[in-house]
Amino acid sequence: MAEDTGGLPPRSDFSAWYNEVIRRAEIMDVRYPVKGLYVWYPFGFALRSQTYTLLRGLLNRDHEETLFPLLIPETEFMKEAEHIKGFENEVYWVTHGGLSLLEVKLALRPTSETAIYPMYALWIRSHADLPLKLYQIVSTFRCETKHTRPLIRLREITSFMESHTVHATWDEANEQVEYELGLSQEFYRDLGIPILISKRPDWDKFPGADFTMAIDVVMPDGRTLQIGTVHHLGDHFSRTFGITYEDVNGEQQFGLQTCYGISERCIAAIIGVHGDDKGLVLPATVAPTQVAIIPVIVGKRGDEILAAGEELESELKQSGLRVKMDTRDMRPGAKYYHWELHGVPLRVELGPRDLDSRQLVCVNRLGAKTIISRENAAESVKKLLGEVHDQILARAESHLESRLMTATTSEECCRKLDGNVMAVHWCGCRECADKLEELTNASLLGTEIRSRYVIDDEGPCIICSKLGRAALVGRSY
Amino acid sequence: MAEDTGGLPPRSDFSAWYNEVIRRAEIMDVRYPVKGLYVWYPFGFALRSQTYTLLRGLLNRDHEETLFPLLIPETEFMKEAEHIKGFENEVYWVTHGGLSLLEVKLALRPTSETAIYPMYALWIRSHADLPLKLYQIVSTFRCETKHTRPLIRLREITSFMESHTVHATWDEANEQVEYELGLSQEFYRDLGIPILISKRPDWDKFPGADFTMAIDVVMPDGRTLQIGTVHHLGDHFSRTFGITYEDVNGEQQFGLQTCYGISERCIAAIIGVHGDDKGLVLPATVAPTQVAIIPVIVGKRGDEILAAGEELESELKQSGLRVKMDTRDMRPGAKYYHWELHGVPLRVELGPRDLDSRQLVCVNRLGAKTIISRENAAESVKKLLGEVHDQILARAESHLESRLMTATTSEECCRKLDGNVMAVHWCGCRECADKLEELTNASLLGTEIRSRYVIDDEGPCIICSKLGRAALVGRSY
After folding, report:
1. What is the C-alpha separation between A23 and B375, in angstroms, rounded?
2. Is B248 on the interface with A (CB under 8 A)?
3. I need a surface site. Which of A130, A306, B197, B358 has the fewest CB within 10 A?
4. Any CB–CB contact under 8 A between A144 and chain B?
5. B204 CB neighbour count, 10 Å cutoff
6. How far is B125 from chain A (nearest CA, A)?
7. Closest C-alpha among A290, A454, A263, A295 to residue A365
8. What is the CATH number of domain B14-274?
9. Which is the CATH superfamily of the domain at A291-387?
């Protein structure tokens, strides 16, 4: 797994940069011998572990984690008509066990509604069993025919968090949708990633949902990446799978459901939104190593410097920080390059002069140098990590702001759309949306937009001029 | 998920007890509509999470975690002849993606050698890349034809930890085998589970290994359960997959490999070895809840008791303990029953008299009552948890000791074997082993036994009377 020390393509050439940084910063290896399946390197896996630890922490406030089987019998999978239609072209099927044909073929879950809901039908009896809020983090599978790309479009999605809740009423399920949108906002704020929330148009909602709220991020090339969805399922699935409860009056009622998903695209967003020409820029909340200590050994005081470095490392670790001292036999400059490529938020340089002055030279990943006192180093380091987090969030916010534009005519929309996301007004009818998508070669992402940069107001439809509402238009991954 | 308050079958009827405790203590639900696939309840999943956090902690000392794809192309899977033979009857095959036949069919990993080693061949170039020590925790699949049972024999093994290492020499790989046996001993000691280590006979080793060291536990019915294996793979796989390195002299050499596995059978062992007629008995190291606080509200001081309980809960949590106060509207007796069934190591009862005396009544899962002072409660509780851990380990050790017997004739072996594991002498030849297995209707588990209860000495073979070595014979799951 030797490091490639050649330069990265510039991040302005985003697609080339992304592929190279995924490889050189050891996130994933794309050379696995099946298209669309990738291998997590240990470093990438450590980033994944930290990110999902953060997500679990948020979910565990009021969800419980569980695990359902990967294999779904065709008989269950085929029960919900809209759902089948949405997935039938991309489901992998297991047909043989050993040398024998299976009696009932088994789907590799593309998502787990049809695995989970038959069990919910057994588990839920009365209103006292509600609400039920479970989640799992699993691999899901889709036989993608489109161009695959690590973390973004895969045939094995290795890190799909899916939450499935059941409630007594449609309104309670709707409150859960809001709650889970709130969790997502908190999650992405902790990652320093500003998001756009909108309601997907009806033809683009999850197969079998009442409606779908989507979370998008704008990548450096101006294309949007869907990095989360919350679906209000109404009673579609509970009617299909018989998820009923006895209400306080002794009547049988169908449960009302939501589901909610976040995949490893959240890691694609971390990489894409924050990275720069030197490589990854990781938020301290999830960086596998938050602080790299680089001993700068000149002259005879090597042992003394290493001892001081070890003492500092252990002190910072004690305070809960993830720290590594890099004692490899390499020039300091090569170590700086390594840790910058891997996005470490803060590097501490430790040379003879620093020992004498009882000071530490700290350089954050954005290049800002601060000299701190050796006393209370842990506290100062935490403050610096907080600062660099605020800086990367602010930078990401101004990037998002610069990519959001408005248009009142389809001609203006076309002209401004390259590299940007457009806010327009749309009357809500399918015909106008189709026409707009065709004229702009882009997608109508959604309405009921929640973003401090877009005003969710009314105005004349960009196509038919009838009264419309704000809608986002963009090119998506 | 309502609780069933009927009595459990006695643990002496182990098979019935096991199935019932799995269900009632909410470990797994067996009603998933595919044979051999089970659903983790949230409580079972929490036990799994704690157990694998413990295992990860041990492995992370010198292994790194990673993740490889689930799907293995037939072309790679078929490369190692012995390996194929070992698995071909139980591999699930994906043949279709959507409605199309795949060009190359894909195996659901039964184990990951053939997924991982093609990548190792790319990653390893020089002696400086060695040793390489990675692991992953994944689902593996086997189309079992035998009777399936939760956590013990499954078609989806949901929690397979597999470590794969590469070394420069056979001896270094052999040291790794010893190291990983040591890790296993530490892991199972932390779970309070005494184990037997032995070398599996040649015909029972992992397909493609030089040799297999196995870790067995003796379940309450006297049957052994294999709860871990460490394989020395020699250079079988490195020759097949081209895993070579340049040594210090610039010569190309094949890597020497080990692999090492522990599955959710470790949780079956926790349940089986420690449980009793009241339900689970969980080691404090992995119990999802280590301490249950039960407010005993009599008279008018309810609010005061709840406030004191909350204060205690928060104090114990602060000190790192996993604590739950049970405020449900139920009789204390029903709560005791609930927490005993779920194996909580320590329950703290909190009533008006305890408030007045500034004391706490602690009852451990084995029934021992201790009164501790409210001052320094966290420290005292930790001490009690340590004591109950020692007690369950000691109990498990004396159970194991009582189940180990010796025999010098096949007739004696047959007579004593029901419910026990036998130590005999065996000359090492296949014919004698076959004869012994046939006569006893049991398996020759292994030689080179490591256990303080079995002496690994020499003696006349139980079948042919030639000089032999100690060997274990038992009936296995």
Report:
1. 55
2. no
3. B358
4. no
5. 14
6. 8
7. A290
8. 3.30.930.10
9. Anticodon-binding domain (3.40.50.800)
ipTM of this complex prediction, to 2 decimal places: 0.95
Q: How far apart are CA A409 and CA A427, in angstroms?
A: 13
Judge contact between B243 and B254, C-beta under 8 A.
yes
CATH domain B404-474 topology = Translation Initiation Factor IF3 (3.30.110)
- Per DSSP, A375 falls in state T
Q: Report yes or no: B322 and B269 within 8 Å, Cβ to Cβ.
A: no
Runs of H (alpha helix) within B213-255: 236-241
Which residues pair with residue A136 across a beta bridge? A162
Taking a C-beta distance cutoff of 8 angstroms, is the pair B297, B350 a contact? no
Interface test with A, best of B23, B51, B60, B67 (most A CBs within 10 A): B67
Domain at B291-385, CATH homologous superfamily: Anticodon-binding domain (3.40.50.800)
**Domain locations in chain A?**
14-274, 291-387, 404-474
d(CA B180, CA B199): 14
| Tokens 């997959």 -> residue | B241
Angle, nearest 10°, between helix axes A265-274 and A377-403? 90
Amino acid at A18: Y
B88–A contact, CB cutoff 8 A: yes
Q: What are the tens digits of pLDDT across the range A124-152?
A: 999 999 999 999 999 999 999 889 999 99
pLDDT digits (tens, 9 = 90+) for B47-61: 999 999 999 999 999
Full-prediction pTM beyond 0.80?
A: yes
